[in-house]
Amino acid sequence: MLKALSVNSFTDHTLAQFLDQLSSSNPTPGGGTAAALSGALAASLLQMVCRLKIGKKNYLSAAAAMRARLEQLEPLRRELLELMEQDSVAYARVMEAYQLPKANDAEKSARDNAIETALKHATDVPLRVAELCGALLSHAQFIAAEGNQNAASDAGVGALLADAGLQGAVMNVRINLAGIRDAAFAQDRRARAEPLAQNALTQTAEIQRIVQSRM
Known about the structure:
Blueprint: H1 15-22, H2 31-51, H3 60-98, H4 105-146, H5 152-177, H6 183-213
Helix pairs in contact: 2-3, 2-4, 2-5, 3-4, 4-5, 4-6, 5-6
């Protein structure tokens, strides 16, 4: 049996260790953590493409713009790495809430409130992942068009990873909202998540068109 990794140590383990844990029967890490990782991978690839145009004699005029994008991508990458762990912590809290006793009305009420609070937090974490991945797609469109042409496919893969992270995160928002009783909260989070998912489809398609035109 696999030994469960501490949820605050995913980034301290090897890729092989993390994938072993992801493939295990343990509920964490799961899809939410994988979505955040997809976003972090996207940010890293886009940073690589930026760096391939910085300091090169043939690209001096574009260096400043690429350096600016590089700097803007770094905090996104770092936050997505943090959200990998936050998602697993949030889901663990949901599971703990469902395991609370419900032998009498007082316990049932306390359990229901704990589940609601945990589900709300477990909704907000992937919503933030989706927002960050949406920001990555905006960067990816510029980088795909203006980056080193020899790395056009890398920009394309970065965009696809960002879209996968976004769509996966929105799926997690939807499934958590299904269990939340607070209608105003659900309406607000749905109104924030759904446009991200729809806009990403259009933006990803445009980025792939740009990439194909440069290959």
